[in-house]
Amino acid sequence: MQAHTKKPTIEKIELRFIGPIANMASAVDALKPLGFVDTSESIPWREAYPECSEAQLIGKALAGARYREGLTQTELSKLAGIPQRHISEMENGKRPIGKEMAKRLGKALNINYKVFL
After folding, report:
1. Spatial CA neighbour of 27 closest among 38, 14, 43
2. pLDDT tens figures, 106-117
3. How far apart are CA 73 and CA 93, in angstroms?
4. How do the domains of the chain map onto residue ranges?
5. DSSP state for residue 51 in the 8-state scheme
6. Burial class of 113 by CB neighbour count within 10 A (0 to 12, 13 to 18, 19+)
7. Alpha-carbon distance 104 to 86, whole Å?
8. Of 10, 35, 58, 69, which residue is most buried, by most CB within 10 angstroms?
9. For residues 72 and 63, what is the distance between their CA atoms, to the nearest angstrom?
């Protein structure tokens, strides 16, 4: 027998439309008062750094999330319970971030851990 599971709360959604380009501006303007943001000019963050390896991109994501929270490497290491040198190695793409480590970092940085995988 299958057990009921609690579904996570969805806080954000992405809408996509197909229609005449001439009506795009009015559609965007109609949705802005409802809290929607036009991302048609943005690109995925991984594509913004084509010269970087996957490990370097993940390191940049870690450093950016740490900066956003206003934390030093030492402060983050205490929150996540890992040595500061490991944070430095991860940010520089020299140490991989496994799933368990990503979860600890995600919790400490108030970010979805999947960013680091």
Report:
1. 38
2. 999 999 999 898
3. 15
4. 48-116
5. T
6. middle
7. 13
8. 58
9. 10
Sequence-ordered list of residues with C-beta below 8 angstroms from that of 37, at least 6 positions apart, any chain: none
What is the rounded distance in angstroms from the CA atom of residue 43 to the CA atom of residue 101?
27
The three-state secondary structure class of 25 is: helix
Q: Tell me how many degrees the CA angle 99-109-82 measures, rounded to the nearest 5.
A: 60
Burial of 3 (0-12, 13-18, 19+ CB in 10 A): exposed
Q: What is the pTM of this model?
A: 0.62
The CATH number given to 48-116 is 1.10.260.40
Q: What is the pLDDT of residues 46-98, one digit of tens each?
A: 788 788 888 888 998 999 999 999 999 999 999 999 999 999 999 999 999 99
DSSP 37: -
Minimal CA–CA distance to 64: which of 37, 44, 45? 45
- Tokens of residue 72, six digits: 């030093």
Spatial separation of the C-alpha atoms in residues 54 and 56, rounded to whole Å: 5
